[in-house]
Amino acid sequence: MLMPHPAVLRTLVDEYEATKASGSAEDDTRAQDLAYTLCVSTGTREVDRALEVARGWLAAATTADDTTTRRSADDGPRVYA
Fold first, then answer.
1. How far, in Å, CA of 15 to CA of 73, rounded?
2. 55 vs 6, 8, 9, 43, 46, CA distance in Å?
3. What distance in Å separates the CA atoms of residue 70 and residue 56, rounded to the nearest whole number?
4. What angle do CA 3, 7, 12 make, to 5 degrees?
5. Rounded CA Rg of the chain
6. Backbone phi and psi for residue 13, each to the nearest 5 degrees, phi listed first
């Protein structure tokens, strides 16, 4: 399965949560669209599960970025011939 880019996934989650919090009818329609997109993006059928999966992927992506950054800094300068 293809995985969405973490930045795109973060935007979807943040926007979904913001529209759900507002409670307006217009935002409810937008929230439904975002819920559908989250479900498709995560391969799930329920928005609560989609959010859970998305948050897990985002946490994993953040951890991977931190590990890569630390490893690169610890390795010292790279010399290319």
1. 34
2. 10, 12, 9, 14, 14
3. 21
4. 80
5. 17
6. -65, -50
